[in-house]
Amino acid sequence: MPTGRVAVRGSERNAGPTSSAIGVADPNEEVNVTVMVRRRAEPPLPGSHVVTREKFAELYGANPADVEQVEQFATEYDLTVTEVDLSRRSIGLRGTVANMSEALGTELQIFQSPAGAYRGRTGELSIPANLGDIVVGVFGLDSRPQARTHYRRHVEGVGPRATAISYTPPAVAKLYSYPTTGSGSGQTVALIELGGGFKASDLTTFFSKLKISPAPSVTSVWWTVPATSLWAIRTARTAKCCWISKCSALSRPRRRSRFTSLRIQTRASWMRSPTPFMIL
Q1: 273 domain-assigned
Q2: Do 104 and 27 share a domain, yes or no?
Q3: Phi-psi sector, 191: left (phi>0), alpha (psi -120 to 50), beta
Q4: What is the pLDDT of residues 98-140, one digit of tens each?
């Protein structure tokens, strides 16, 4: 590791048992990453102190002085700052593979795996020592698929193996003592969908049986991006999308919320079906 640099904590990666390096990444390819920085202060325990989102960002978001140091670091390595969000403590950076590799002390390579080729790295990332306590994570260099669907083909003569018992979201929420206070009114919830889709008639029936009236407004969003693109996850974060459990979103009957179904489809040659994945 170069003098005056420190490792980014938790950044060590390996190629995986079924992957092997087959070459180096194109040095001129543009890469988008998200740098996560520390909080101003640690927030109180959930439920112990209620504040507005704006006040939360002011008290527990990123410190502008920390962001300024990251911006100076980006300038030194010819990286472009694409976005800054103090509330999410995130800074978007864009640059070539060559500049990004030099800035973060790594070598980006092309790996081959049973799922296809991807851009990746091994070992730890490094940053200047003055950023050691500021930066808590760097995301987006590695483009390997992080999730996949588990399709099951119907085989003649083989009966269903799944249990016949199912639970409604309110029933699951009750089992886990999910809080019942608050209405969730005006909130937007994103469901990241790994293929399959939905029918409007099914949603109508579902919400009707849960006695949720009027039913939530559902908007389906579809993005098509290259499999090696990091744009998808950055855009999802910009839209403030997150992974959630359906029971948490639907556990409060007779309340109105707005749901968004988000899909990210790849154009990878090894994935012809409309099956999306997230790059973390």
Answers
A1: no
A2: yes
A3: beta
A4: 999 999 999 999 999 888 899 999 999 999 999 999 999 999 9
pLDDT at 152: 64
At position 62, the amino acid (one-letter code) is A
Decide if 262 is inside a domain.
Answer: yes
- What global pTM score does this model have? 0.59
Contact 138, 6 (CB under 8 A): no
| Residue finishing a domain among 139, 156, 184 | 139
Gap between the Cα atoms of 275 and 267, Å rounded: 10
**pLDDT (tens digit, 9 = 90+) per residue, 65-97?**
999 999 999 999 999 999 999 999 999 999 999
Chain centre distance of CA 49 = 27
Residue 121 is inside which H or E element, if any? none
Q: How confident is the model at residue 192 (pLDDT cuts 50, 70, 90)?
A: confident
Residue 274 lies in a domain: no
Say how many C-beta atoms besides its own lie within 10 A of residue 115's C-beta: 16
- 205: helix, coil or strand? helix
* Encoded tokens for 170: 């309110």
Note down the domain range covering 115: 5-139
Residue 8: which residues within 8 A CB-CB, separation 6 or more?
104, 124, 125, 126, 127, 135, 137, 138
- Cβ–Cβ contacts within 10 Å for residue 181, how many? 6
Spatial separation of the C-alpha atoms in residues 59 and 157, rounded to whole Å: 61
Please report where in the chains the tokens 């085989």 appear, as a residue: 155
